[in-house]
Amino acid sequence: MTREDSGVVGVPRAALLRRGFALEYATLGWNVVGIVVLAVAAIAAKSVALAGFGLDSLIEIGASTVVIWELSGTGEERQKRALKLIGVGFALLAVYLLVQSTWVLAAGFRPHHSVLGIVWTAITAVVMFTLAFGKARTGAALDNPVLKTEGRVTLIDGLLAAAVMVGLVLNSLAGLWWADPLAGYVLVYYAVREVEEIFSGDH
After folding, report:
1. Closest CA to 108 of 190, 21, 178, 198
2. Which of the chain's termini has less CB crowding within 10 Å, N or C?
3. Domain 10-200, CATH 1.20.1510 — does that match?
4. Is-contact 27 154, C-beta < 8 A?
């Protein structure tokens, strides 16, 4: 039995592909629901961070769609195009984080408390970290750079959810409204690194 047929550690390739599809559809479903929840929470709290996180969910939906498209076909050319599309998603995410964080800091914008926002971002962080771990393992088993790279998009989604949650908690408990935009700058650096790696061919 070849590696192409069996994947890695005895798991059939067909089973790995099904797992990859399941991970991406789970990500899609969660983020579609998340956009609705975040819109409600953002309007109620007048929170720029929550509204921005909704945009991040849109980017994640786009990245998952790209991976589903790539897993449905074969060929190095399709993988290259899929990686570039994911790279564009990372670039959009970096621009969004940079603009949002700078605007919030400059304006001194103070959102209202949001219990719904805290609960949703906390759960989302756990879900995204779990999905990112699964994508990393499955992508490595399939030797699929597209799935592995999109797993890092999911990881950033989880990190951003955690950052937004911490910002909301600190704002609620201590009035530290600037915590979230500062965390956003850290994620900008991470996203830019991923864009550089993808377009330099390191993947």
Report:
1. 178
2. N
3. yes
4. yes
